[in-house]
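Predict the 3D structure for this chain.
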Amino acid sequence: MKVSICIAVHNQAHLLSDAVISALKQDHKNIEVIVLDDASTDNPRSLAIFSFPQVKYFKSDKPSGTGGAFNLAISYATGDIIYLLCSDDIITDNRVISDVVEIFKSNKNIGHVSRYYHQFVHGDRSPVRAWRCDDVIELANNPSGMAFRREAIFGGKCWCELSNKMFVEVSSMVSCVLSKGWSYEIMRWDTIAVRIHKSISRSKDYYLKRWKTSPIEEWTKVGGSALQNDFTSLIQIKNYFTTDAVLKEIWNFIKLKPVNLINPCFLFFAFISVITPRPILKIIPEIYRASWGKWTTREVKRP
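Done. Predicted structure below.
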């Protein structure tokens, strides 16, 4: 089976090579790497990685957002399997794609393969946080490492696409595929390392352009429960958007689960996200990652 590894990039040329090289190192050789340049201004096309024949470069005329860029990359893909990879992330093992192919071959009813992943801080590959569970929608909170059978995306009465709404870009696609009757499999080890750095999504401009409805409300629409229990999102909203948005999201947490009014964890994050000055609040996640996160998180490697 041919695999199309689709990478969307926007102004992250300095990180793109790591992602592409991790794709090219895969021991499954029937691959193509589709790089969709989402109207970048830092000229990723000049990188040496594009000298490899497996790597194909396409550029959009104007920025289309994470979901839109991946959708465009998928439209250029010719593989039997579509595999998503963010331009700042890394495939952790050179056998990942082979394992994905074997899962799809083993059961023709499988339309989606998910995975575990961990996060690391740019400059230090030590894991600081991980996402591991049996909820396939919850695992779809990041595009990297998500694989789909081609006919699961394009078959049936409608095509499944990624959304451009915050935090539900790929979960909406997973929900669409499952609604067509396809089954799924989860690779229960960290196939992806997600990089934490000063990215586009950690800017006020990102939120100004994309905040149309509450992230919690959007997550609930696709049947996810992860964000409903991830109160740390309040800190990110305060750090990179507005206090008013934080207050609205606090209210959404309470509407969805009134029991949060007596949940000490929720009350703690709600309190500090409202009263703590932004310069101080931005330091808290960094301290957590460098201490508790780094001490308690270990990579789950391939069995």
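The mean pLDDT is 92.
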